[in-house]
Design goal:
The structure holds 2 protein chains of 2 kinds. Chain A is an all-alpha fold. In chain A, 66% of the residues lie in helices and 0% in strands. Chain A has 2 domains: 2-100, Fumarate Reductase Iron-sulfur Protein, Chain B, domain 2 (Orthogonal Bundle); 105-359, no CATH class. In chain B, helix 3 (64-76) crosses helix 4 (89-102) and helix 6 (127-147) packs antiparallel against helix 16. The chains are: A mainly alpha, B alpha/beta.
């Protein structure tokens, strides 16, 4: 039936960054050059490109392929028609992120930079407002951050935010799993298979080891930088979500104390890669950084500013500048909170969930197909 | 005055007095020949052949010194017959005839022996055999040339007027160009107006110019010189003759406008611009003629031209939400897959224009009707011309969805509910996945098939290629000439072409035609039949054998005396008449029976005991 086609899909993807797709004549050079093609069942990445070209939206939504690409850019460098296949894969990831999100906010943010900026601004103002109106006593003769912003309350705010973010992110993950495993067909897969693949999720989350096999174009260096960034991000997440009472103190510990060392490590691991990526995107030399959408810039800049303001809070606190500490602390949270609220469930940061989940789901599909529980190729996607 | 100083003009045509004096020249061809054939030995032997007074070897006979040695010997040794044993006559026969002319010798007193292709190249493992064969062939040539008589090219008056058959764009262009050179032209068109397929309005690739505009320009070019006589509703009912001298009967008017009359004209050249026929699908092929939603690109062109503007395309009152094109309908047909046409022939050729036609139409649909979706089901996109590829890119950009089928797995078309057409096929760009499409309009991209060129093809025995189109002599070196001298090809009568190529071919044909008519006389080969009037008793056997209409006729010279007469313009010198004449009264100039006898004698000469 013609229902299998959505002729507007191509146009939709264009809004997510796939601008040169119409140049593609399906020669397959991208597939032959791609080092990931074989373990993605062949036809990768052209299969995704073809789905977009022919407008098979449901099939694209049921595909894990976009998440198995780590953007080495070899396909784009070798494309004889300059159709930019790597960017099509990138656009597909943006598109899928938007589709997994049931609220429609992700779609809105990806397609409108102003909507995303407005959302960030709004949440930022809300955070600023909360501090302006609800902050504790302002002690000016020494730094008393926990008096100004009691760690108990900040921690509660943290947890509320984490709960909300997790809810949206998990909802997206559920939709991803439902579509890619063929909806009701999921029930026919034995729980053992689901359980056995769980380690793969965490291995990928902490190591991104699949990335190392991607491409010829300085991938290992990039993978290491990204790994550093992830370690910094996860460190910081641990420090502010789980160990905040230990981390946010008024007492200044000696330099070698783990609280400070870990914090400095996390800051450096955030600042260096983000700064490096910003410069690289600006220079447009590496394939992955040649084409930047607003969402890419916002993500990097917000992350960089969060780390920068975070370390400034520390500088002022350690050197005993009470007012500067409080003001920068408000600024820090007015950047960090909207970044997390907007980016994690509704934008680029969601890949922290979808990347490892795609490895997990691919493993489940593979195992199920081998056990003939699910005919992977023929799995008809359900409406989403 | 010394005999050697006589001019060629005085000398030629005169029978050489006394015994013929033959010069034999053997070429080494830089080793090509002499590495196998013992040229020196052969030259030595040739001294003993009767009539030979010069026998020489040269490394390159075709070089200037080689040719000069012939000329020198014609003067010095008083040679009156020349034999050169070298390469194929296709390569250098005319070279050495030229040398003979420069030596004031009649060029037909020259014989060419091929001892390269026929001796050294094919017998390179048998040098002795090759040498013996070369000597035998030279012996035959010497025997023949001793019997040769001086010949002259046949010169006939040129009728300096051109006939262009077919008033489509190619015919109009050829007529206009010919008239532009000052020649009177007769343009014959079967229908009631000039223009051919351009008459229906359409946007032409690759420029996007409207057909009407092109047609207006062509029409004004045809009329502006005042030298083109246009005969509409007319056809060629009879044609005979040869280059420079065609007798043509034109019948018209074919329409209801009057009584049929025949007009006789005589012209020097004929330009065939009879065009093509669009392929008409079989009844039921892809539901053609069975479903209102299935039409050809030809019909769609018109539908598109008169479709009202709007969100969606409307064709024959039906609103089109989805349209699909199928490429290669009636082109690139495969035995066992496609049904042959009424003539039992498959159209195996690629029609070349349909791909870009589809792209052009698809773009127009997408640009004009935002809510009409277009699917393009193709085998290969052959957008080969300058600027055509842009159409592919533009169609992609306009959201046309391309799907690729294999030629031996034709899309299956069936009628769906709600008046739509169901198309099912495997898309080989999606790894052979079966695609099922419901469309409101299915456009069949029909190709070009050979046009009916009329009686002229049979009457002049014009050759057709395997694809049924008129066939040129050489696809690269003589692309607008056909094997019948004086007939030229213009446009799609020859092969599928787009308008640009068709007009280019027409222009080339016009120039060729002009070159043929530039002289007062046409020159023809002298190798034609000649009747010995002393011997001919008018048995008529020869006429019964002659395959070439008008080449031989029986003429009553005086009451009761009937003799055969040759029309040298039509005779091709095949010799069928010679074989059947009971009185041996007919012969071929340059290939007389005595010459054959002498050749046989010459062949066996070296094998006779000394």
């Amino acid at each position: 039936m013609a229902g299998q086609f959505n002729p507007d899909l191509h146009e939709d993807l264009r809004r997510f960054g796939a601008r040169d797709l119409d140049m593609c004549m399906n020669c397959g050079t991208c597939t032959s050059i791609c080092p990931m093609s074989e373990d993605a069942g062949g036809g990768f990445p052209r299969r995704v490109i073809r789905l977009v070209q022919t407008g098979r939206q449901k099939r694209l939504e049921a595909s894990l392929d976009p998440w198995l690409c780590y953007y080495c850019g070899d396909c784009t460098l070798n494309c004889p028609r300059d159709a930019n296949p790597a960017e099509v894969m990138m656009a597909s990831r943006r598109y899928l992120t938007a589709r997994y999100d049931f609220t429609g906010l992700a779609s809105l943010f990806y397609r409108s930079v102003w909507a995303e900026l407005a959302a960030i601004g709004l949440v930022g103002l809300l955070v600023t407002g909360l501090f302006v109106f609800l902050h504790g006593p302002v002690v000016l003769n020494h730094v008393a951050l926990n008096t100004f912003a009691p760690v108990k309350w900040v921690e509660r705010g943290d947890w509320i935010m984490a709960a909300i973010l997790s809810f949206f992110l998990l909802a997206g993950a559920a939709r991803m799993a439902w579509w890619t495993l063929g909806g009701p067909a999921m029930r026919r897969i034995s729980p053992a298979i689901y359980l056995r693949q769980v380690p793969a999720f965490f291995v990928q989350l902490f190591s991104q080891n699949r990335w190392r096999r991607c491409g010829t174009h300085r991938s290992v260096v990039r993978w290491m930088k990204h790994l550093l960034l992830v370690s910094g991000y996860l460190s910081m997440l641990t420090l502010v979500l789980i160990l905040l009472r230990w981390f946010q103190t008024d007492h200044v510990y000696p330099f070698y104390y783990p609280q400070r060392l870990w914090g400095y490590y996390a800051t450096a691991a955030l600042l260096y890669p983000t700064g490096d990526f910003i410069v690289s995107r600006f220079r447009r030399k590496e394939p992955i950084h040649m084409f930047s959408e607003a969402s890419d810039w916002i993500f990097l800049i917000m992350l960089f500013l969060t780390a920068l303001t975070g370390i400034l809070v520390n500088v002022f606190r350690v050197n005993g500048f009470p007012l500067a500490t409080y003001v920068v602390y408000i600024i820090h949270l007015s950047i960090a909170v909207p970044m997390l609220v907007v980016e994690v469930p509704f934008s680029k940061w969601s890949h922290i969930m979808y990347r490892p989940l795609s490895i997990y789901l691919a493993g489940v599909k593979q195992a199920a197909a081998e056990g003939k529980l699910l005919a992977v190729r023929d799995a008809e996607p359900v409406a989403g | 005055m010394d005999a050697t100083d006589q001019s060629y003009a005085e000398n030629r045509g005169a029978e050489p007095a006394g015994q013929p004096r033959v010069g034999v020249y053997i070429c080494r061809c830089g080793g090509n020949i002499s590495d196998v054939v013992d040229a020196e030995h052969a030259a030595e032997i040739c001294w003993h052949i009767p009539g030979v007074v010069v026998s020489k070897v040269h490394t390159f006979m075709c070089s200037d010194p080689g040719q000069q040695s012939i000329i020198d010997d014609i003067h010095g040794e008083k040679l009156d017959r020349i034999v050169v044993a070298s390469c194929s006559p296709f390569l250098h026969e005319l070279t050495f005839r030229g040398a003979a002319i420069r030596g004031n010798l009649n060029p037909y007193l020259y014989e060419h022996v091929n001892i390269r292709e026929q001796c050294s190249w094919v017998h390179k493992h048998d040098p002795q055999g090759a040498t013996a064969k070369a000597i035998a062939l030279i012996g035959a040539a010497v025997g023949k040339v001793r019997q040769s008589r001086p010949l002259e090219k046949i010169r006939l008056n040129n009728r300096r007027r051109a006939l262009v058959v077919g008033g489509g764009p190619a015919g109009m262009k050829a007529a206009a160009d010919l008239a532009g050179t000052g020649l009177p032209v007769l343009l014959v068109e079967r229908t009631g107006r000039l223009g051919g397929k351009l008459v229906s309005p359409q946007s032409l690739f690759p420029t996007g110019i409207g057909s009407t505009q092109i047609l207006e320009k062509l029409e004004s070019d045809v009329r502006s010189t005042g030298r083109v006589e246009v005969l509409l509703e007319s056809e060629i009912s009879r044609v005979k003759g040869f280059i420079g001298n065609f007798d043509v009967t034109i019948r018209g008017p074919l329409g209801p406008s009057g009584a049929l009359t025949d007009v006789d004209v005589s012209v020097g050249v004929i330009v065939m611009a009879t065009g093509f026929q669009p392929y008409v699908p079989h009844d039921g092929e892809f539901l053609f003629n069975r479903h209102p939603g299935v039409i050809t690109t030809v019909d769609f062109q018109e539908a598109l031209a008169c479709a009202p503007e709007g969100k969606r395309l409307v064709v024959n009152g039906r609103e089109i939400r989805r349209a699909a094109f199928i490429h290669c309908v009636g082109s690139r047909q495969i035995e066992g897959v496609h049904e042959p046409g009424p003539d039992g022939r498959l159209n195996k050729h690629c029609s070349r224009v349909c791909c870009t036609t589809v792209l052009n139409q698809a773009i127009q649909v997408r640009r004009r009707f935002a809510d009409t979706r277009v699917y393009d089901i193709y085998q290969d996109i052959r957008a080969y011309g300058r600027g055509h590829e842009r159409y592919y890119s533009e169609a992609s950009r306009a959201g046309v969805i391309f799907l690729r089928y294999h030629g031996d797995e034709r899309p299956l078309v069936s009628a769906a509910e709600d008046q739509s057409v169901h198309v099912s096929f495997k898309d080989y760009l999606s790894w052979g996945e079966t695609i099922d499409l419901d469309v409101d309009l299915l456009v069949l991209a029909v190709g070009m098939t050979p046009g009916p060129c009329g009686r002229i093809v049979d009457q002049l025995k014009l050759p057709r290629g395997e694809d049924g189109f008129l066939q040129e002599i050489h696809p690269k070196l003589r692309p607008v000439e056909i094997s019948v001298n004086g007939v030229l090809l213009a446009g799609t009568a020859q092969a599928p072409m787009n308008l640009q190529e068709s007009l280019a071919a027409a222009g080339a044909a016009a120039v060729k035609a002009r070159a043929m008519l530039v002289k007062e006389q046409v020159e023809l080969n002298p190798y034609v039949a000649r009747v010995n009037t002393q011997r001919c008793e008018g048995s008529g056997e020869c006429i019964g054998q002659c395959e070439y209409d008008g080449a031989l006729t029986m003429v009553e010279e005086s009451p009761g005396v009937r003799r055969a007469r040759v029309n040298p313009g039509l005779c091709i010198g095949c010799g069928a008449c010679v074989a059947v004449c009971p009185n041996s009264a007919i012969d071929i100039n340059g290939w007389r029976v005595e010459q054959y006898d002498a050749m046989v004698d010459g062949l066996v000469l070296q094998n006779q005991p000394a």
